[in-house]
Amino acid sequence: MTGILGRSDQQIDDVSFDQLRQLVGLVDYDATKDPFPVRAMDAVVFVVGNATQTAWFYQVAFGMTLVAYAGPETGQRSHKSFVLKSGSARFVITGGVAPDSPLLDHHRRHGDGVVDLALEVGDVDRCIAHARAQGATVLEEPHDVTDQHGTVRTAAIATYGETRHTLVDRSRYTGVYLPGYEPRTSTVVRPEGAPKRLFQAVDHCVGNVELGKMDHWVAWYNRVMGFVNMAEFIGDDIATDYSALMSKVVSNGNHRVKFPLNEPAVAQRKSQIDEYLEFYEGAGVQHIALATNDIISTITAMRAAGVEFLDTPDSYYDDPELRARIGQVRVPIEVLKEHRVLVDRDEDGYLLQVFTKPIGDRPTVFYELIERHGSLGFGKGNFKALFEAIEREQARRGNL
Ligand SMILES: [Fe+2]
């Protein structure tokens, strides 16, 4: 099979293509008709208040491996950047060092958050020409960056809020990340018996946008990046008694890159999306879903490292309707209940998922763990239970 960009025989950072197909729910598509062919997420880039300690958190709590670094010691005086990997997922954690670094102003406004959903593409110039013709804001024109390991061609366009998509063609580059970065390891030792890694790929990255802006950004991804619409959730699907939101999902042709977009819906009380928009000071990335092939091991390891997950009430598991709806799944329902893992089934299969509490000080960015078994969905059947759990946390923060 070569339907997906002809890469079926490739190992992608020691995750095989077939593994990836199941992990993130890939479909075949014809890349030759795509005006803006995207291969994969290149990196999720964060700006945080303390990159040194945040990089440590992702190693200890998320089992990631430190692979590269740039900072004052490597000639980059204004900020520090740590590059971490887990399977095909790459996070870059950046923080200002020089007191006049613009990153510190960014952090003052938004707190810890995602500044860049960087994408790997085969032809930066062609993508930028298409994006510009479709009205996108080009933040960085296509240019080469070179060191002794080769050349990366890159450019950047603006998306919602102060978020960007950097485009990266690394086909002529053999270095560890980008020119300017040096290989870096750390002294962190994985706990005895821990899995080799806790997740293998980024499944989807969710953006929260302002009231009335969801359709604008869906159309933007359709037009500028040739993304297709996936499942739609509106109205009652994701309304609880108090709060509501609307959500639509866009993806690249083979579904490897999936961007759900949420906006608040008018409800009795403040939507979780309103809370995000208030505390992030605008639109931004809400959660990142990490694909695992063993969610129970992953959640066990993360909990042992201190990561806090949203709770799910006993009634969720004892509901006969749920038991009838989900049928047979890999993990016995008693084990799902013990670990508070949610389960959903659709016509293609099922998925297991769980959500962390916000990982920073502000109630903004959080994570999802997702184990897919054929389902290409996002856990629509769990939205009500999930949002009620989020509302309990909102109420504890005084924001409901
Ligand atoms: Fe999600």
Question: Can you tell me about this structure?
Answer:
It is a single chain. With 400 residues, the protein is an alpha+beta fold. The chain folds into two domains: 3-20 and 27-183, 2,3-Dihydroxybiphenyl 1,2-Dioxygenase, domain 1 (Roll), CATH 3.10.180.10; 201-397, 2,3-Dihydroxybiphenyl 1,2-Dioxygenase, domain 1 (Roll), CATH 3.10.180. It is built from eleven helices and 19 strands. The longest helix is centred in the last third of the chain and has 15 residues, at 383-397. The model is unreliable at 1-10 (pLDDT under 50). The chain binds fe (ii) ion (FE2). Fe (ii) ion (FE2) is lined by residues 204, 206, 287, 289, 368, 378. Fe (ii) ion binds at residues 204, 206, 287, 289, 368, 378.
In short:
The chain is α+β, with helices and mostly antiparallel strands and 400 residues long. Helices cover 26% and strands 32% of the residues.
**Distance between the amino and carboxyl termini:** 50 Å
Net shape: globular
Average of per-residue pLDDT values? 91
Pattern of helices and strands: EEHEHEEEHEHEEEEEHEEEHEHHHHEEEH
Computed over alpha carbons, the radius of gyration is 20 Å
What name does CATH use for the topology of the largest domain? 2,3-Dihydroxybiphenyl 1,2-Dioxygenase, domain 1
Structural class computed from helices and strand pairing = alpha+beta
The hetero molecules present are: fe (ii) ion
What proportion of the residues form beta strands (DSSP E)?
Answer: 25-35%
CATH class of the largest domain: Alpha Beta
For the report, how would you describe the main beta sheet?
Answer: 9 strands, mixed
Q: Which sequence of strands runs across the widest sheet?
A: 8-9-10-7-3-6-5-4-11
Low-pLDDT parts are: 1-10
What is the overall number of helices?
11
Strand elements, count: 19
How many individual domains?
Answer: 2
